[in-house]
């Protein structure tokens, strides 16, 4: 790993900013999840609330990327983080005057999601601006390591604070973390980029952003693979795990917090997978290895359909935490490894002036997939035996593996063409 990146002042500030911002987001999200799940008690209704966060992605997705590509990334992040801090502080003050209403939290979910629509592409496109192209893989790996190290305790601490002090204190803590994030962002210096397509219209920029998905078969395959993750895997984990732990096995808030912390620990440890694989295999192969890892680590969920194992979990609270914690750790270990290579590939492949548009459209497609997945699993967990959602998850994971085949085929074809060009060039010389 290239530790010399820590001598890059902008990169260090970037890590600090991201760590603070995401720690606060996780802190808030787990508290909101516990509050809303306790309020509804239904997987279907819980899925409907989670789906609210997807609405801004559907409405603003393509436009957000154009705005990100046109604006100064640092300025945009400053505006978004400052606005989030202000809203959180107002929510804290309001909650001191009267109990916070569920409707207000629903509005918060939509509002903060709207901020994320712009923040996500700004964050991804900022990285290539502060590190060299050949350093992106190491930079993404270090980013994952540092961020996940800071976040590893956030879910557990979030549940402790929420359980002991309520949602108001959670608002205050997140607001403070956002302010520190703003301070770190102010110190980042972004090199002046060479502007292109100055005379283009917003509609033209949106159209070129969509073309990124059709011009390169590898990118098309990569994005479809990601959509399958957000359709089948993420909804199962984000909706199914809390529902099973809290409603089916009657676990506590702290039990769920521990499982969430183990998810983060898995992401943190995934850096070892990246280090072992990045020098041995190519990016396409490493992405495929990550997919296979996800399939393998989904298999332990099959134990849930065994009546004896299910009954044992009902009578052993510690086993519930250990089981879901272990599965979470392994899944996020594989996904973290897969995610680093996934992100590095499109950062290296997509032109930097179009990267914001690409990321925002991709985020919109992922949001559509999560929307469908939340409602699918909400109905399955409420109305059908556990076998049904687990089988659906298994089918989705196999589709991910099949979707990677066109990626590998196109990559092989490109290498073959490059080899022929190199050979013909050497013959001419």
Automatic annotation (TrEMBL):
TM region positions: 20-40, 46-68, 75-98, 104-124, 171-190, 222-245, 257-277, 289-309, 321-342, 354-374, 386-408
Keyword annotations: Cell membrane, Membrane, Transmembrane, Transmembrane helix, Transport
Gene3D superfamilies recorded: MFS general substrate transporter like domains
Membrane topology category: Multi-pass membrane protein
Gene Ontology CC: plasma membrane
Primary localization: membrane
Subcellular location(s) per record: Cell membrane
A GO term for molecular function: transmembrane transporter activity
InterPro entries: MFS (IPR011701), MFS_trans_sf (IPR036259)
UniProt-listed Pfam families: MFS_1
SUPFAM superfamilies referenced in this protein's UniProt entry, alphabetically: MFS general substrate transporter (SSF103473)
CDD domains: MFS_MefA_like
Protein name: MFS transporter
Native source species: Brevibacillus reuszeri
